[in-house]
Amino acid sequence: MRQIALFEQGISPTPIVKMSGCYGENEYYIKREDMIPFSFGGNKARKAAVFYKEIKACGADIVMTYGSNSSNHCRIIANMAASMGIACHIISPEENRERLYNTRLVEDFGATVETCPVTEVSGTIDRRMESFRQEGRNPYFIMGGGHGNPGTRACVETYREIAAWEEEHGLHFDYIFHASGTGTTQAGLVCGKLLSDAERKESGQVVGGQKIVGISIARNEERGREVVRQSIEDYLGARYTELFREQELIFTDEYCMGGYGKYTPEIAETIEEVMKRDGIPMDTTYVGKAFHGMRGYVEAHGLQGKKILFIHTGGTPLYFDFLERQKQESV
Ligand SMILES: *Cc1c(COP(=O)(O)O)cnc(C)c1O
Question: Atom 3, ligand 1: which residue's CA is nearest?
Fold first, then answer.
């Protein structure tokens, strides 16, 4: 099994930069998780670094995961497996077969893709794991989107980087916004905050009321919240009741525009504007949608004079799918 130097040495903190665009009377900063230097970066690269260690520790010879044709997670896992010189098997819902850049990259990395109806995914996963074992192979399974405790742990690290940056620059963010999908990123951020607040309190520091807002890109509020809460509980374990308070979990489905992958002309305009002004590519499924949602939230809640951090969670190949679509629409 080959090593990936970046994952061996650990990921350096990603940049936090001020944005030039002003949306209301607030200051905006962006954390460029998309600049993690592996396979276009993003939160899935951060999670992959944790899975990498686990795969090596158990000596797996095939990694299996699940995701759609647009999945950043599948691209990164397939890239990681290729780079490690082990096999990769992806289960994908057959309902969505449009060949996007991520779909093509997954194929180029040599992963095998098995499609099935979305309702049969979990059964297919179980059967396939079993058949790999029967063949004498040692499969490692990763949940869709890198959901689960290792993924949460990776995103706790994102929060620690933010807290260290705040300390170094003497600047406190009032709000942190990000796209919330499987909820792992949000769970990691909230756990990171709860743990670091607890540490600060122990050393006699005052902790300010920072808010982490997950903008749902697909799930409704009830289910989305519950999954994030459950992930927080799984991660904190015995410290959950001591540290967690309901008000720490802000998850809104007001900007999910009818579900996964759906977007409006206004979201497209926001993406074009951010690219022009700040040179930052965003996609329509996650980051651009959440960024646009943040603007809506800021307006709806009348936020003023706040320091706001938006986390760019990656998905750059999807930006190019967006460009292609814009091109087709303009001819
Ligand atoms: C997967 C993904 C998200 C959502 O992250 P979760 O941890 O699943 O909530 C956000 N942005 C991008 C670009 C993603 O690929």
Answer: 181
* Strand runs labelled E in the chain: 16-18, 27-32, 62-66, 87-93, 112-116, 139-142, 175-180, 211-216, 250-252, 307-312
Considering the entire predicted model, what is its pTM? 0.97
pLDDT, tens digit, 9 for 90 and up, residues 131-152: 999 999 999 999 999 999 999 9
* Greatest C-alpha distance within the chain: 62
Q: How many angstroms is it from 136 CA to the middle of ligand 1?
A: 34
Of 173, 181, 211, 208, nearest to 30 by C-alpha is: 173
Amino acid at site 204: G
Please name the residue whose Cα sits nearest to atom 4 of ligand 1. 181
State pLDDT tens for residues 255-286.
999 999 999 999 999 999 999 999 999 999 99
Is 177 near ligand 1, meaning CB less than 6 Å away? no
The CA 85 to ligand 1 mean position distance, Å, reads 26
